[in-house]
Inverse folding.
């Protein structure tokens, strides 16, 4: 399996807050700004790594690879469809 190139476009706004400082409710409700609790010796590289990992898709694919459901999102006929037809034919009317 080979690696793939994946372009990221991350726009994150972080608001540093001192450890133990109360964060106003209106700031907690703002989806555009994330408040982070900062202590002495903030590891900026670890923070950047976490933001990058959160921005990556769960299962990236090559552009040439099809999804398991096909292009239109509809899967193949279910293997249980045959069982459903058997169940319907054995009913006593």
């Amino acid at each position: 399996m080979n690696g793939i190139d994946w372009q990221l476009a991350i726009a994150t706004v972080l608001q540093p807050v001192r450890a133990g400082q109360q964060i106003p409710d209106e700031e907690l409700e703002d989806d555009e700004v994330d408040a982070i609790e900062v202590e002495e010796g903030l590891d900026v590289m670890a923070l950047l790594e976490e933001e990058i990992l959160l921005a990556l898709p769960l299962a990236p694919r090559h552009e040439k690879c099809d999804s398991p459901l096909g292009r239109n999102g509809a899967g193949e006929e279910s293997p249980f469809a045959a069982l459903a037809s058997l169940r319907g034919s054995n009913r006593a009317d």
